[in-house]
Amino acid sequence: MTGRGYRIVAGTPFLSAGAGSWYDEVREFYNHPPVADTRSIGPREAWRHHIGLRLVLGLLTGLAAALFTAPLVAWWFGLGGGVVSGVSAALVVGVMTGPVCNLAVATALTAVQLSAEEGTPVRLMAFLEDARRRNLLRATGPVYQFRHARLQKRLAVRE
Questions:
Q1: Domain that residue 7 falls in
Q2: Mean pLDDT across the chain, nearest whole number?
Q3: In terms of domains, do 47 and 109 share one?
Q4: Beta partners for 139?
Q5: Who contacts 42 (Cβ-Cβ below 8 Å, separation ≥6)?
Q6: pLDDT tens, 55-103?
Q7: Is residue 97 domain-shared with residue 127, that is, in the same domain?
Q8: Which residue would you say has higher pLDDT here, 44 or 113?
Q9: Where does the chain show beta strands of DSSP type E?
Q10: Which of 63, 64, 124, 62 is nearest to 99 (CA)?
Q11: Residue 9: its pLDDT value, please?
Q12: Residues 107 and 127 occupy one common structural domain
């Protein structure tokens, strides 16, 4: 028990484990505020992390859906129906939680759409990194910003 409400359950026989004064050191250890992470990562690292996290999440969620639906359908409709429902549940849930909701996939599709509609380069990240190396842009975390306000105003004006 940690936090300010541990004394509420101190008198309850079943819930009072960890509520005595002999656990004060444990409560002090866990009640410290977490240390904030102050390092800044670039957009590519954020997208790589997100795509890896989402793919693993999609695989695990699809496996869980298959393990849930396959035995139930197999019990009611036979082994063939269970296998088909397990595979289809794994594919649908895995794809919906993995690549479909992924920030990196959405960014790649947006780059293709911008290239088709506005004429921007398809390899937009390489273009932005080149502009950053030439001191036209600066990277602040996962965001690119113009370094000069005058340049930004000039490029924002449509002819």
A1: 1-32
A2: 76
A3: yes
A4: 144
A5: 139, 141, 142
A6: 888 888 888 888 888 888 888 888 888 898 888 888 888 888 877 777 7
A7: no
A8: 113
A9: 137-140, 143-146
A10: 62
A11: 55
A12: no
| 32 and 2 Cβ atoms separated by less than 8 Å | no
Coil, strand, or helix at residue 16?
coil
Q: Are residues 58 and 75 in the same domain?
A: yes
Check whether residue 107 and residue 75 sit in a common domain.
yes
Q: How many domains would you assign to the chain? A: 3
| Burial class of 116 by CB neighbour count within 10 A (0 to 12, 13 to 18, 19+) | exposed
Written as one letter, the residue type at 120 is T
Cα–Cα dist 64/89, whole Å = 9
Q: Angle at the Cα of 42 (from 37 to 148), degrees rounded to 5?
A: 110
Amino acid (1-letter code) at residue 89: A
Note whether 110 and 67 are same-domain residues. Answer: yes
pLDDT of residue 47: 75
Judge whether 138 lies within some domain: yes
Q: Which residue has the higher pLDDT, 9 or 89?
A: 89
The residues near 138 (Cβ < 8 Å, ≥ 6 apart) are 132, 144, 145, 146, 147
Residue 37 in domain: no
pLDDT in tens, 99-116: 777 777 777 888 888 889
pLDDT at 32: 62
